[in-house]
């Protein structure tokens, strides 16, 4: 199956489950339900939850037991986008081709919608831990992996340094810290959490962690490249916003050509980490994803 078709197949699964899981209407706070759903269903690749399901399937042959954690990861990712778009952060008007959450619901409800998605993600994972005795240890370890990646030693930590670095002449180590934590950490955790739920050995987890680190960093560098040369009609969001916000990106620091070469190098690192899984049919998806990172236009 072509990568695009495979991504769409799993995307449909995730969106169907999200629709069942997210609160809807009928209560006094239903406006925040609508705001949550607005951003969740505004589009998106669903890359993080797909990685969770695929990693679980790679190890165990089945993805279904990882579904609650895949949904939680998409909620966490979407909350971060809602907050990123706020005037106090990146101040963006469009996300995924639609008006950003605060442009539709106001800044107050947008903040609360982001908070609600983050909290609901944790509620979803805790419910899974409570209700599934057979996978309790795996679920708890996956929960810890995701929580750390989303917190002050992961995504939030990266976002803090990103905000504090605007307009400053930062060095290579600071830029790597931002990329490693703001974007790469949650992508890495998506893969590792799926592998843990699937019952992976320590060696398998270490190899998939290497893979996740490489594609996570490559994904962010490709984002920097697309912010420079991307097509707004394909991306569905403003381009050039990093430069307008005085943010130092990989492209700004190293130039476009070196940035493209770095994504290729990271793609090869990721492929090498997969050699342990050559005997598994599902590994082809992860190989093809390496190429997608280098070539994607959205």
Would you mind describing this structure in some detail?
- With 298 residues, this protein is mostly helical.
- The protein has one domain (3-295): Orthogonal Bundle (Farnesyl Diphosphate Synthase).
- It has 14 helices and two strands.
- A hairpin with a 2-residue loop joins β1 (94-95) and β2.
- α4 (67-84) packs antiparallel against α5 (101-131) and α8 crosses α9 (202-229).
Overall pLDDT level: 92
User: What would you call the structural class?
Assistant: mainly alpha
By DSSP (H or I, 4+ residues per run), the number of helices equals 14
Biggest sheet: strands side by side, in what order? 1-2
What is the oligomer described by this structure?
Answer: single chain
Total tally of structural domains: 1
Note the overall shape: globular
Cofactor: Mg(2+)
Pfam families: polyprenyl_synt (PF00348)
EC number: 2.5.1.10
Organism: Caldisalinibacter kiritimatiensis
Please specify the SSE layout and strand pairing:
Layout: H1 3-21, H2 30-40, H3 47-60, H4 67-84, E1 94-95, E2 98-99, H5 101-131, H6 136-150, H7 155-165, H8 172-198, H9 202-229, H10 232-235, H11 241-244, H12 250-254, H13 256-273, H14 283-295
Antiparallel strand pairs: 1-2
Helix pairs in contact: 1-3, 2-5, 3-4, 3-8, 4-5, 4-8, 5-6, 6-8, 7-8, 8-9, 9-13, 9-14, 13-14
Short account of what is shown:
The protein is mostly helical and 298 residues long.
Features:
298 residues, Farnesyl Diphosphate Synthase, mainly alpha
């Amino acid at each position: 199956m072509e990568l695009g078709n495979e991504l769409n197949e799993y995307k449909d699964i995730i969106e169907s489950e999200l629709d069942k899981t997210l609160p809807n209407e009928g209560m006094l706070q239903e406006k925040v339900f609508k705001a949550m759903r607005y951003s969740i269903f505004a589009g998106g690749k669903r890359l993080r939850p797909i990685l969770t399901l695929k990693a679980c399937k790679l190890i165990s042959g089945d993805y279904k037991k990882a579904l609650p954690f895949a949904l939680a990861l998409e909620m966490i990712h979407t909350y971060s986008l809602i907050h990123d778009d706020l005037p106090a952060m990146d101040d963006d008007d469009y996300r995924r081709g639609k008006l950003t959450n605060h442009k539709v619901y106001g800044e107050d409800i947008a903040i609360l919608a982001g908070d609600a998605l983050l909290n609901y993600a944790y509620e979803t994972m805790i419910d899974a831990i409570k209700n599934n005795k057979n996978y309790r240890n795996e679920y708890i370890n996956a929960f810890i992996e995701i929580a750390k990646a989303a917190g002050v030693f992961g995504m939030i930590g990266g976002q803090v340094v990103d905000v504090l670095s605007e307009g400053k002449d930062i060095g290579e180590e600071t830029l790597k810290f931002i990329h490693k934590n703001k974007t790469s950490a949650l992508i890495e955790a998506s893969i590792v959490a799926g592998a843990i739920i699937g019952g992976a050995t320590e060696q398998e987890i270490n190899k998939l962690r290497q893979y996740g680190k490489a594609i996570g960093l490559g994904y962010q560098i490709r984002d920097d490249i697309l912010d420079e040369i991307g097509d707004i009609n394909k991306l569905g969001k403003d381009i050039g916003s990093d430069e307008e916000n005085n943010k130092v990106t990989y492209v700004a620091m190293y130039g476009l050509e070196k940035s493209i070469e770095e994504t290729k190098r990271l793609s090869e690192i990721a492929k090498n980490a997969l050699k342990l899984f050559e005997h598994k049919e599902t590994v082809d998806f992860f190989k093809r994803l390496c190429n997608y990172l280098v070539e994607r236009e959205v």
